[in-house]
């Protein structure tokens, strides 16, 4: 049974790192999980150690011990023994490339399918999709494929908004997702704004956080979703 908590972002403006998700993470992991394996490979402009230190501090405040995958002498063994797997945000292409390079994709997928809880934010949420094709990130490296974990059967666009900035001549986020749907008919996308998340528990899926998300069932079928919406039909 797949249990996944997929967060749009880690940090809201004006708050410290990983503050708003804390109550949701506590509830998701409950009292039984006191140790997690953290995947820091989406970090590009900071070191994996710097990233893992930040996550260790944030999760330590919840009484959860963090082991960073980058420091493991045997990544496959660390993932196989993980009580829960946490994947941080950053650059999705860098994340996926590193996971394939270290032969971790299939192991993570298998462990989560076996019931190990998965938490991902931003790039980590993209990784949970069938592909990373709806990330906002620049392809700074080339992974061997765009295929990702497939923990949910639809795509996520984290940090979603529909703003058009003054002086902007290019496409909006909505228009970019419409391009994806034109080129990939039959696919579904959830635009997940800051401060919102998706939680899957087996065959149940719901939308949480604060605000509204946007569900693209097709280019012509776009729906606004309120927090608390039951999205189990997408599974």
How much of the sequence lies in strands comes to 15-25%
- Overall geometry: globular
How far apart the termini lie comes to 12 Å
The percentage helix is 25-40%
Low-pLDDT parts are none
User: What integer value in Å does the Rg equal?
Assistant: 17 Å
Helical segment tally?
Answer: 7
- Helix and strand succession? EHEHEHEHHEHEHEEEEE
Layout of helices and strands:
Blueprint: E1 3-7, H1 22-29, E2 35-39, H2 48-60, E3 65-68, H3 75-80, E4 85-87, H4 92-101, H5 105-113, E5 118-121, H6 123-127, E6 155-158, H7 173-183, E7 189-192, E8 196-201, E9 204-209, E10 212-216, E11 222-226
Parallel strand pairs: 1-5, 2-3, 2-4, 4-5, 6-7
Antiparallel strand pairs: 1-8, 7-10, 8-9, 10-11
What labels would you give this structure?
235 residues, 7-stranded mixed β-sheet, globular
């Amino acid at each position: 049974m797949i249990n996944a908590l997929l967060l749009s972002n880690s940090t809201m403006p004006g708050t410290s790192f990983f503050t708003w998700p804390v109550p949701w993470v506590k509830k998701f992991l409950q009292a039984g999980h006191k140790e997690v394996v953290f995947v820091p490979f989406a970090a590009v402009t900071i070191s994996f150690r710097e990233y893992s230190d930040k996550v260790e501090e944030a999760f330590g405040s919840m009484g959860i011990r963090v082991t960073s995958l980058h420091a493991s002498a045997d990544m496959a063994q660390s993932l196989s023994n993980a009580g829960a797997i946490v994947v941080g945000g950053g650059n999705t292409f860098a994340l996926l490339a590193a996971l394939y390079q270290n032969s971790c994709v299939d192991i993570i997928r298998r462990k989560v399918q076996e019931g190990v809880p998965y938490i991902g934010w931003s790039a980590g949420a993209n990784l949970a999709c069938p592909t990373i094709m709806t990330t906002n990130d620049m392809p700074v490296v080339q992974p061997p494929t765009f295929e990702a974990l497939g923990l949910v059967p639809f795509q996520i666009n984290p940090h979603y908004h529909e703003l058009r900035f003054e002086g902007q001549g290019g496409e909006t986020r909505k228009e970019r997702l419409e391009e994806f749907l034109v080129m990939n008919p039959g696919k579904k996308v959830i635009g997940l704004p800051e401060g919102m998340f998706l939680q899957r528990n087996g065959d149940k899926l719901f939308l949480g956080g604060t605000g509204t998300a946007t569900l693209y069932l097709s280019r012509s079928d776009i729906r606004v979703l309120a927090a608390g919406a039951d999205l189990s039909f997408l599974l």
